[in-house]
Specification:
Helices cover 40% and strands 12% of the residues. The protein has 620 residues and is α/β, with parallel strands linked by helices. The longest helix is centred in the C-terminal third of the chain and has 37 residues, at 504-540.
Length: 620
């Protein structure tokens, strides 16, 4: 144990000393993969020397993309295993797309595995559950006011008792349970997308049901290098993935299921085919569609277009074209939440990189310190150069390994010095045009770069800036090593900040409207209680029969007002969900949260008025 502790201390010291975010931009540059390996692993997927037609002018999505070195061999054929139960967990209250969840526990409180420890705050937030049993020893982080330590977000730290005493939800039979009850269960269990966006799954299903989607797509492409979590999940639990897909298809109202899987996963494909052939599935029979291995074929927009031939509109969502997309890990988590009552307390994560001697995929409890996972995977601290969360194309370099495993972490790469070297210095653009053929969004990165550098974000927006998915394919092929995706990300941030600033006055007005709506709702509830008391007294009073009849309430008008209030709530929720999935500015999200709260207050007022009027009508 002493040797492990010494290795852990040395590892953390080395990481703090060595770790630096490339170019200070917060994301790993795609060109971090040595450019010499491009020739060995395959050039640009589409021939850049041939005449190119961008996606906007009719080229199919399958003709664009890149072939970076896969580097999946060290983990894809290793059996999925369960990581040791951590002695302590650091559960960060991730903001995700919405507000920060609010803690429900206090320091010193005993919690059981699966017990809710933080409630959702706002429409887009999701619950957080204890991943081990034990006592809450600390609530810390910048949001808690300490501003110290390695925790850069509000975190709940639990010291385990080693018993893993559980507190599951009641199991449900998804075949006989209503769609609304299934959606509520997903919300209660804190299920969120495990592909990286961490968008609450209950909102996704509810939005899909309202939009009338016809197809559920299982995103099994997993196109980014190194990551094999979904591949191994499909090989190990194909039956759970398929059952989860059938359940969410029923929940969302989808009539068919399509599984999109890349052709570099023959074992996973065979496992799925065998599970489908067994004939034990209920609901629509899943259709397997093999797609050519290219990066980034696994993007939602790209997969929808590849499989369905439907193009998601600019700044639109898959639901706009009748599709709902989930990855295998999310489907398994959703099924277990319903069938077994297990909240989201664990996930599959790929542990890889040349600094590990036992790479592979593990089922790890959320909040497990990353250092413990790496040491269990055979970390050689002397080899470690960088620690990356996610893949090499879209991942983030971490400054500390003391943070806990989060819902969004599907891969940890412990790289050696020569594995993912920092990119060479940025050089001037030579206008070679190599970036345009690889853009899956059909954009012109060279022109976007010109406007982004020139502080002309409005012109970049006119050229489709917000259609960029920041995949880093253009970075990868750029001979001048220009971090194009980082420039585009910065231009988006600037535009979103402008929009949020312009909406500040509207935000103040929306908060005032929310206050008025809240007061109106409280007044309506008081009036309803007064009317109820009057009816009770009148029913016991002998003189009630002689009382003059009161004016009949306008029930029809109140029902219309209630229906309008319900429509306003749904409209506000849809606008908020769309903004969150498009990663709009946090201030804009906050304003939309206020609008949702106002609409809900108005609906409560309408409900109270209608209930009061119905009681009055009964008395009359």
């Amino acid at each position: 144990m002493a040797s492990v502790s010494a290795r852990l201390r040395r590892f953390l010291q080395d990481l703090s000393r060595r770790q630096a975010t490339p170019s200070g931009r917060g994301h790993v540059r795609g060109t971090g993969i040595a450019r010499a390996e491009i020739a060995r692993a395959g050039e640009i997927a589409s021939d850049s020397r041939a005449p190119f037609r961008s996606a906007r002018r009719g080229a199919t999505i399958a003709t664009v993309g890149i072939h970076p070195p896969a580097r999946k061999a060290s983990t894809r054929d290793v059996a999925l295993r369960t990581a040791p139960l951590p002695r302590r967990v650091v559960l960060a209250l991730d903001r995700g797309p919405g507000r920060l969840p609010q803690p429900l526990v206090e320091v010193g409180q005993y919690v059981r595995t699966g017990e809710c420890i933080a409630k959702a705050d706002g429409h887009l937030s999701s619950r957080l559950h204890a991943s081990i049993s034990g006592h809450v020893v600390e609530i810390t982080g910048a949001q808690a006011g300490t501003g110290a330590g390695p925790y850069n977000a509000l975190s709940i730290i639990i010291e385990g008792d080693g018993q893993d005493t559980s507190a599951w939800l009641a199991p449900l039979d998804w075949r006989s349970t209503s769609a609304q009850a299934l959606i509520e269960r997903l919300e209660q269990a804190g299920i969120a997308g495990l592909g990286g966006a961490v968008f609450p799954s209950h909102l996704k299903s509810e939005a899909a049901r309202h939009a009338g989607v016809d197809t559920l797509i299982v995103n099994a492409a997993e196109c980014e290098p190194y990551i094999t979590a979904d591949d191994v999940t499909l090989r190990t639990h194909p039956d759970l993935v398929l059952e989860g897909a059938a359940m969410l298809a029923r929940t969302s109202g989808a009539q068919r299921i399509i599984i999109g899987i890349e052709d570099d996963k023959p074992e996973a494909l065979a496992a799925l085919e065998e599970a489908i052939a067994a004939g034990r599935l209920e609901g629509p029979t899943p259709h397997l569609r093999v797609v050519t291995t290219r990066y980034p074929s696994g993007g939602e927009r790209q997969l929808v277009e590849t499989l369905l031939g439907r193009r998601v509109p600019s700044r639109g969502l898959p639901a706009d074209v009748g599709a709902l997309v989930h990855n295998p890990g999310t489907l398994v988590a959703a099924l277990r939440a319903v069938r077994d009552g297990q909240p989201l307390i664990e996930r599959v994560v790929t542990l890889t990189g040349s600094a590990l001697t036992r790479p592979g995929n593990v089922i790890a409890r959320l909040g497990t310190p990353l250092a413990e996972l790496l040491i269990d995977a055979g970390l050689v601290a002397e080899r470690l150069e960088r620690l990356i969360q996610g893949g090499p194309m879209m991942g983030q370099a971490l400054a500390s390994a003391e943070t806990g495993l989060g819902k969004a972490c599907n891969c940890l790469i412990a790289t050696g010095a020569d594995e993912l070297p920092p990119p060479p210095p940025e050089q001037p653009c030579i206008r070679c045009g190599a970036c345009e053929p690889v853009c899956v969004a059909g954009l012109q990165p060279q022109r976007l770069l010109w406007h982004a550098r020139g502080q002309e974000a409005d012109k970049a927006q006119a050229l489709g800036l917000f259609d960029c998915i920041e995949c880093g394919a253009c970075d990868y092929v750029c001979p001048s090593h220009i971090p194009l995706a980082a420039y585009f990300r910065g231009a988006k941030t600037e535009l979103r900040s402008r929009e949020a600033e312009a909406a500040r006055a509207d935000h103040a007005r929306h908060r005032f409207e929310w206050r008025q709506a809240r007061q109106a709702r409280e007044q309506a509830e008081k009036q309803a209680r007064r009317e109820a008391r009057k009816r009770t007294l009148a029913s016991h009073s002998p003189s009630a029969v002689d009382a003059p009849p009161s004016t009949a309430p306008d029930l029809r008008g109140l029902r219309i007002a209630q229906a309008a209030a319900k429509a306003a709530v749904r409209k506000a929720e849809k606008a908020l969900e769309r903004a969150a999935q498009q990663q709009e500015d946090a201030r804009m999200i906050e304003d939309l949260e206020t609008q949702v709260a106002t609409a809900r207050e108005n609906l409560s007022t309408a409900d109270a008025q209608l209930a009061s009027a119905r009681g009055e009508g009964t008395r009359s």
